[in-house]
Structures are given as structure tokens and as C-alpha cells.
Amino acid sequence: MVKALLVLAVVLAAALPAAAAIATVDVLDGSFSPNWVTICINDTVQWQWDDANSIEYGCVSDTNPYESWNSGELAPGSTFSHTFTHVGTFAYHGTWEGGFPVQGMKGTVEVTDIPEPAGLLTLVSFACALGGAAVRRTRVRRS
């Protein structure tokens, strides 16, 4: 019975689509924080402009054939999002006043095709707990 529940949990976990996640990057005066994020394919990065910024900044992808975005220069308190549909490592930079790059304002998004195992581990843990309860009940009945 325990083995059957464990197998069922693994099959269900494999069949369930992974929920998309959102990684947040703060756009500060002259920098991104964090300046490197790792996400899964089909996840989203949301850039949030800090209210204390002294000027309007933009967030622009470096040239690559798979992912591109350009927020345009946005005011403090703004947000911009991009959903990544390709695996790879994608660099970007900050801009200001008509698209001029800001020296040292750079970031990277690493996109993997391996989802976080949290969902699978939760289901397996749940199945083990159910199996353990069934075994305990069985033992109690036999005593």
C-alpha cells in the first residue's frame, strides 16, 4: 500500500504542470538588485523601479537571438515584466535619457529547463505521511 501511494504521488507530480514564478529585481539609482537571477523557462522577471531614484531608468536586453525586451525609461515606482520562453543566459543593461547606457548598470537572467523540486517533494512527503498513517492503523488493528 505504501509503495502504491508513493508511485501514485510520483506519477501525479510528473503530470502536474509547474506553476510559473515571478522573480523580482529592484531598479536602483545606477544598479539592479539582485543583478543575477536564475529562473525556469516560462517564469517571469519583474523589475521594480525604486521610489527613491533620482532619474528615470530603462531596462534593455543585450543583443541575443532568443529573448529581447525594452522597458523604455520609467519613473520611480513603476514596474516592467518579461516572461522568458527560452533556456539560456541573458544579459541586460540600464539606460537613461533617450536610451543611453548607464555605465556599470548591468544584470543577468539565467533561464533553466529544470523546475524546482518543491512540488514533487511535497507530494512525496504527503504520500509517505498517508502511507505511514495506513501502516500505523493496520498495526493497531492487528494488536
Distance between the termini: 19 Å
Instruction: Using the CA coordinates, give the radius of gyration.
Output: 23 Å
Strand content of the residues, in percent? 35-45%
Order of strands, main sheet, comes to: 2-1-4-6
Give the fraction of residues assigned to helices.
Answer: 25-40%
Estimate the mean pLDDT confidence.
Answer: 80
Give the number of helices. Answer: 2
Q: Output the structural class.
A: alpha/beta
CATH fold-level topology of the largest domain: Immunoglobulin-like
Using the alpha-carbon principal axes, give the shape.
globular
Strand count, sense and closure of the main sheet? 4 strands, mixed
Task: Find the CATH superfamily of the largest domain.
Answer: Cupredoxins -  blue copper proteins
CATH class of the largest domain: Mainly Beta
What is the number of strand segments?
A: 8
Low-pLDDT ranges: 4-15, 121-128, 133-143
Number of domains: 2
Q: Examine the secondary-structure arrangement and name the CATH architecture of the largest domain.
A: Sandwich
Annotate the secondary structure layout.
Elements: H1 2-15, E1 22-28, E2 31-33, E3 36-40, E4 44-49, E5 58-61, E6 79-83, E7 88-96, E8 100-112, H2 118-142
Parallel strand pairs: 1-4, 3-8
Antiparallel strand pairs: 1-2, 4-6, 5-7, 7-8
Helix pairs in contact: 1-2
Describe this structure as you would to a colleague:
The chain is an alpha/beta fold. It folds into two domains: 46 residues; 94 residues, Immunoglobulin-like. It is 27% helix and 36% strand. The protein is built from two helices and eight strands, in the order H-E-E-E-E-E-E-E-E-H. The strands form two sheets. It has a four-stranded mixed β-sheet with strand order 2-1-4-6, with no helix packed on it. A four-stranded mixed β-sheet has the order 3-8-7-5, with no helix packed on it. The longest helix has 25 residues. The radius of gyration is 23 Å and the shape is globular. It starts with a helix and ends with a helix.
